[in-house]
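Writing this down once: the sequence line spells out the residues, with the fold written below as integer tokens. I am pasting one below:
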Amino acid sequence: MAHDVTLILGDGVGPELAEAARKCVDATGVKIAWDSQEAGIDVMARTGTPLPPPLLASIHRTRCALKAPITTPVGKGFRSVNVQLRQEFELYACVRPCKFYAGVRTFFSGVPVDLVIVRENTEDLYAGIEFEAGGTTTRELIECINRISPDRKINTPIDATGISIKPMSVPGSERIVRYAFEYARANGRKKVTIVHKANIMKHTDGLYLATARKVAEQFPDIQCEDRIVDNMCMQLVQKPELYDVLVLPNLYGDILSDLAAGLVGGLGVAPGANIGAGGAIFEATHGSAPKYKGLNKVNPTALILSGALMLQHLGEKEAGHRLEAAVAAVIAEGRDVTYDMKAHRNDPTAVGTQEMADAICRKLAAA
């Protein structure tokens, strides 16, 4: 039986990356029934929405998608497609492995970085509960806060102050921390680090930390520790090899997952997964790079590795590991890689997106 998977083509360089990742997943021999769907800026111009109903219907049916990058307009236009998909399918866990592969250029070459960031995806400041400066609701909120909590009075000008609300719940905190510990146990990981700012935000991050500690008691086989988020940033730069699985609230998880990706060579080699009650969506964590659209130039590694994560999620663990190993082998050889993975970005021996994917397919065939 084939696995049903929605292939979200994305925009910018998305379709090129989707094709590269699809051929590599198919080269593992696992049978996938792909349902290709458009999303993003291009389809927005035709349909009025970046997430057309057929796409959403497909994911509801397959409960699994491989998503190429989609542009998020800055400061205007439609809201983040990623946020909409996470909310639509209740994808509460964002999983970002950050692993060093020999051959990748990084300041940390030779350091055995192998981290997994587990980020809560639905609560915290990214819940999107914001009120603009000068608005009626903002004025009423500030006046209410100043009236009921004078010891925490907002002293900035009412008409020049925006407000963002940070909801964090016991159920939301419990399920993401439980996911992190279960992930650690299932994947042979030894330690989970709870990351927070409970020393300052005692009733939000404090709630998260207290809940996380209770969950940790149910996993005596997994070492547990906690770190304040700013200290965690320093720790990752100084001694990343000491850390294993990190579990974080939404905002900190977004920031530290990019920091951790920087340790291993950048977003071009950083896969990602969003998993929850409504299924799972696997994606490259970088943007759509519209200036490179159609040039067959960008690095396909992140989306191909996301395809390897997807195979493991589908129960095809051996195939997923083979695909990751093929990617690692091509990177280590350094011959059939894109320009950004060469020692010099103008190296004339650099290959294109599809050619790097073809080299990975050849490694799979030879294995």
About this structure: The first strand starts at residue 3 and ends at 8. The CA atoms of residues 333 and 360 lie 11 Å apart. The two ends are 24 Å apart (CA to CA).
